[in-house]
Design goal:
mainly beta, five-stranded antiparallel β-sheet, single chain, 29 strands, 467 residues, 2 helices, globular
Length: 467
């Protein structure tokens, strides 16, 4: 494998699951150029073990001497949890703030915790990470998940997975429980909610089913909600991508049957919380062989984050479920960053595939789409498991954790290379640490799963980060 790989070109040989060739300007990767980490036992600004990064975004980026500095915001998920043991904590939803420094000469990234922000609902109460079960409450006329008793009772449940800042310092947060997108002001107070269309909202027996301990009959899969979300650089278009296929779009052929996921596209130029998507597409996720050989694929590589490049293209992080912190003994075989183009994909907005629960599958026995539904195109841009790339920063594939879930783009700020950008990629360490504390209680694990970032240098013609 070459260190500099052509990502998009006409007549490209597309990997399994890509659908069709891309026709956008070429994008290239110059490879892995930096890395940094935080000890798993790091404590955050509220006294809990710091869990990151389910999503990240770098702001106030500038060049300083022979390196760069900025502010890195990260989003942890719902706190340490073990659904099989029904173990949850009343973990307050929050953003973490870091001072980040990067020196390309030695590839070193340093992260210095610098406080954070607690997220609060319409009534000014903190959110909870606790599973809501069948519980709900109504705020501002909206039905929201909320435990009725026990841990987190009376609070709105939030399993935060995706983060996107707006130009005025407000931000969106994507959720797993209800598949909602929450819109916050710069102080972290909830100001609006984008609720998913009927096809995506979790339902059982005709009623909303927001809990994560049993699968709904239709809508988002358990723990497979709004995993990826991003604004276009001009701030007008919000992309929302489910982690994998909806329940009604899941085929009967095992773990690879959840590859047809949904992309919801909202116009937020006039209203930050629109009621319906203007575009709605299918993207077919990669499939792979869990043991890493050349046999028939038997797993789906779920998507874990996106970053929009314009009104129809975005980077997408797609990964397997193996690596440090995983309960599986399978080897890590697929952790890659794709370039997705929705330009020629079928628009399902307003159809029965959105307003109802009609499946996009031609038949339930496999993942073939119905005639007339054209998926988004994609191709691979970065292989995060490439041993040659990892060796550049003294890493090997076995050191990478299971869940890589965060991406952030910043300019190289080089007049000689105006189309070059650094892509920060972060892992979600699931709060796995030998010395862990959560809401004042011990949550120790037998190993340390450090928070880590990798930095790639990309050439992205046509991309401009906007104001």
């Amino acid at each position: 494998m070459t260190l500099r790989s052509l990502a998009v070109a006409l007549c490209l040989s597309i990997p399994l699951g890509a659908g069709m060739p891309l026709t956008a300007p070429a994008a290239e990767s110059d490879g892995l150029v930096g890395t940094g980490r935080l000890d798993a036992g790091t404590v955050d600004f509220l006294g809990d073990t710091l869990g990151s990064f389910s999503s990240l975004q770098v702001r106030d980026w500038r060049r300083v001497g022979d390196g760069y500095e900025g502010v890195l915001w990260t989003l942890p998920d719902r706190g340490r949890n073990d659904p099989e043991a029904r173990l949850f904590y009343d973990y307050s939803a929050r953003l973490h703030r870091f001072r980040v420094r990067f020196t390309p000469a030695d590839g070193r990234v340093t992260l210095e915790p610098d406080g954070g922000l607690v997220l609060r609902d319409f009534d000014g109460q903190p959110f909870t990470g606790a599973d809501p079960g069948k519980g709900t409450q109504v705020q501002q006329g909206l039905l929201l998940p909320s435990p009725h008793e026990g841990i987190g009772a009376g609070k709105v449940s939030l399993d935060a997975e995706s983060l996107q800042f707006t130009a005025d310092g407000g931000f969106y947060v994507g959720d797993e429980y209800a598949a909602n997108v929450y819109y916050f002001d710069p102080q972290g107070r909830l100001r609006g909610v984008i609720q998913p269309p009927p096809a995506v909202a979790p339902y059982r027996d005709g009623q909303p089913d927001f809990g994560s301990l049993r699968p709904p009959q239709t809508g988002r899969r358990n723990n497979q909600g709004v995993e990826g979300m991003s604004l276009s650089p001009d701030g007008r278009t919000l992309f929302v991508v489910l982690q994998s296929a909806l329940m009604q779009d899941s085929a009967d052929d095992g773990h690879k049957g959840r590859r047809n996921t949904r992309v919801l596209v909202y116009d937020v130029s006039q209203d930050p919380v629109p009621t319906a998507p203007v575009r709605h597409h299918v993207v077919q996720l990669p499939v792979y062989r869990d043991v890493g050989d050349a046999g028939k694929p038997d797993r789906t590589a779920a998507q874990s984050e996106i970053r929009a490049l314009d009104g129809h293209r975005f980077l997408m992080l797609s990964r397997d479920g193996a690596g440090l912190g995983s309960e599986s003994n399978a080897p890590a075989v697929y952790k890659r960053i794709l370039l997705v183009d929705t330009h020629e994909a079928t628009n399902l907005a307003g159809t029965v595939y959105e307003t109802g629960t009609e499946s996009v599958l031609q038949r339930r026995k496999d993942t073939v789409l119905r005639p007339g539904i054209r998926p988004a195109a994609w191709t691979e841009l970065v292989d995060m498991l490439d041993p040659v790339e990892l060796a550049r920063v003294d890493l090997v594939p076995g050191q990478l954790s299971e869940k890589w879930e965060a991406m952030g783009l910043v300019s190289v700020l080089d007049p000689a290379a105006p189309e070059d950008y650094f892509l920060f990629v972060g892992n979600d360490n699931d709060f796995i640490a030998r010395h862990c504390v959560m809401t004042g209680q011990r949550c120790h694990s037998p190993l340390d799963n450090d928070s880590r970032v990798l930095v790639y240098r990309l050439t992205l013609p046509g991309y401009s980060p906007g104001p």
